[in-house]
Amino acid sequence: MRNEMMHRPVVKKELVDFMRNKQKKIDGELGVIEEEAHEAGVPIIPHETVAFLQFFLGQLKPKDILEIGTAIGFSSSLMAQYVGEEGQVTTIDRFDVMIRKAKVTYQRLGLEDKVTLLEGQAAEILPTLTGPYDFIFMDSAKSKYIEFLPDCLRLLRVGGVLMVDDVFQAGTILDPIEEIPRSQRTIHRKLNQFLDTVMTHPDLTSTLLPLGDGVIMITKDRELTE
Q1: Which listed residue, of 9, 50, 54, 91, carries a Cα 20 to 30 Å from 19's Cα?
Q2: Which domain holds residue 75?
Q3: pLDDT the model gives residue 225
Q4: Which residues belong to the annotated binding site for S-adenosyl-L-methionine?
Q5: Binding residue positions
């Protein structure tokens, strides 16, 4: 379950090590879960992204959060710390093994009432949701980002933020497609299509951050007509 992308950083190794090792660790049981995941090579968001989310969500103060791609439930548990007493995190995953692990994580942290786990294909579940959400975190199959985008933007409130993880394809996102291994070319093409779409859309504001394998933050400035 080694997360290869975490070992191909797009920033100098010394700076990555500094961001991962010098920023404040998570307290309590969630911090234990983070360390266990790193020791076992389980793919979770790297600590520099953790630190950013803690800072950003502390400022945004979201009430309702949607996550696409639960994995072991670490990031949704982290985000659940910032939604307040009345808030809720809704997360979607289709892999049975991850769903089981996520449920164990929520039980360990006492978050069964704070996190709603929807089991199934995001392509089928997203159209059934009504939102609006203050914050959406997408960290799923990279080739599906462009397909999930219309529903994410529909569900996001005006002024809300869509954060999308792993958009640099291990630093190869700008390489000519002929240099990309054939097994990765669909991801490469669709990630570029996704980035082109959100970075040029007149009703969106976006910014790229070199966290992990690249993050893009997208704000919906007004209700979309398309």
Answers
A1: 91
A2: 13-220
A3: 63
A4: 45, 75, 93, 139
A5: 45, 75, 93, 139
Write the CATH number for 210: 3.40.50.150
pLDDT in tens, 131-172: 899 999 999 989 999 999 999 999 999 999 999 999 998 888
User: Which residues are paired to 90 by β-bridges?
Assistant: 66, 116
- Comparing C-alpha atoms, which of 158, 106, 110 is closest to residue 131? 158
Single out the residue of 216, 164, 214 nearest to residue 5, CA to CA.
Answer: 214
Residue at 8 is within a domain? no
Contact 1, 41 (CB under 8 A): yes
- Return d(Cα 67, Cα 111) in angstroms, integer: 15
For residue 224, what pLDDT is reported? 77
Instruction: Give the chain's domain count.
Output: 1
Tokens of 74: 């670490």
Rounded to the nearest integer, the mean pLDDT of the chain is 92
Residue 225 lies in a domain: no
CA-wise closest residue to 44 among 20, 64, 65: 20
174 part of a folded domain: yes
Owner of token pair 């054939």: 182
* Alpha helices in 2-113, H assignment, sequence order: 13-22, 28-40, 47-60, 74-80, 96-109
**5, part of any domain:** no
Distance, CA of 49 to CA of 214 (rounded, Å) = 10
pLDDT at residue 10 above 80?
no
